[in-house]
Design brief:
single chain, alpha/beta, about 325 residues, nine-stranded mixed beta sheet, five-stranded mixed beta sheet
């Protein structure tokens, strides 16, 4: 019997969100709509420029896992925070959301990671991440009784930016699969794919499921033709999922390809759309739903989160599933 239905491993990042216009982004030298890594000095400067800050425990896979915990699944998260104010805030927030944050805060010079998210009037978000102590996440943080007791393990592509993170990722995946679980990955973002293309191409072949958006899949196979990219991915992987920013979601497994329609929603803030799509989809996987129902669950969770600021749901997503007749 698995201790956890789903475990995630990734960067434990406190999201700090504020609204801004394009002129502000230009003044700050921020590229609109993408995630940029910053050093500590720039991270602290941008933090100081934020007005009406709203903060919450974040990190891409952590958002997914917290969403699954809120839906009632038994969940754990493997990550690293400092024993500072933001680190204590982070571990409490995860616990309050119903997820075991399995690594206690540690002392050290590097502060807890934070991501400054500037949301434009059109809902586009520009992320500036100071990774801090998350870059120190290593295989020693992966507990056998956590990863090895997971029915499903969800891994964050960003971990590949550091050798220690990559080793932690590989240790977690091995422990999960040795214990009879399935391991999958979020491709994270197109630039992350660019940096680790060979590794990610190998993971598509090796892991049990891979989630990404159209830009990430096209980057992975270095083509502008999404159909070509997905055809190759589907021929190599157990299960692939491609989200397409408000257009139909494509899911392929073992020669079967389905498309899941998406209801158009005018976004307030697209932060967390991919993370919460993953929440819905993985909830479907964990509870034995069909690919189509899992895809619909993903779309419902994503639509909820883009309707307000922040990367975590505000409505009861389970009620939304029930309203659509997807669960009893």
């Amino acid at each position: 019997m698995s201790k956890y239905q789903v475990v995630g491993i990734g960067n434990a990042v406190v999201d700090v969100i504020s609204q801004s216009d394009d002129a502000f982004l230009s003044r700050m030298g921020i590229d609109k709509g993408i995630m940029q890594l910053t050093d500590q000095e720039r991270g602290e400067f941008l933090y100081s420029q934020m007005e009406n800050r709203k903060q919450m425990a974040g990190g891409s896979v952590a958002n997914t896992i917290a969403g699954l915990g809120a839906l009632g699944l038994s969940t754990g998260f493997i990550g690293r925070v400092n024993d500072d104010e933001l680190g204590q805030f982070y571990s409490k927030e995860m616990a309050d959301a119903g997820t075991d944050f399995v690594n206690p805060p540690v002392t050290g010079d590097m502060p807890t990671s934070r991501c400054m998210i500037f949301v434009s009037p059109d809902g586009e978000r520009s992320m500036n991440t100071y990774l801090g102590i998350s870059t120190e996440l290593g295989p020693e943080d992966v507990q056998e009784e956590v990863a090895g007791q997971a029915k499903l393990l969800f891994l964050e592509g960003y971990l590949f930016d550091k050798a220690k993170g990559k080793a932690a990722f590989q240790a977690a995946a091995k422990a999960c699969r040795d214990g009879g679980g399935k391991a999958g990955i979020s491709l994270s973002d197109p630039f992350c794919v660019d940096r680790h293309r060979d590794d990610f191409r190998a993971l598509v072949k090796d892991l049990d499921f891979v989630l990404g958006n159209e830009h990430e899949w096209k980057s992975l196979y270095q083509t502008e033709d999404l159909g070509t990219a997905l055809e190759q991915a589907a021929s190599e992987s157990g299960l692939i999922v491609c989200t397409r920013s408000g257009q139909e979601v494509v899911v392929a497994q073992g020669g079967e390809t389905i498309t899941v329609p998406v209801r158009a929603v005018v976004p307030t803030d697209t932060t967390g759309a991919g993370d919460q799509f993953a929440t819905g989809f993985i909830y479907g996987m964990a509870t034995g739903q069909s690919l189509e129902v899992s895809g619909r669950m993903g779309c419902i969770a994503a639509a909820e989160v883009i309707g307000h600021y922040g990367a975590r749901p505000e409505a009861d997503v389970m009620t939304l599933f029930k309203n659509e007749g997807l669960v009893e």
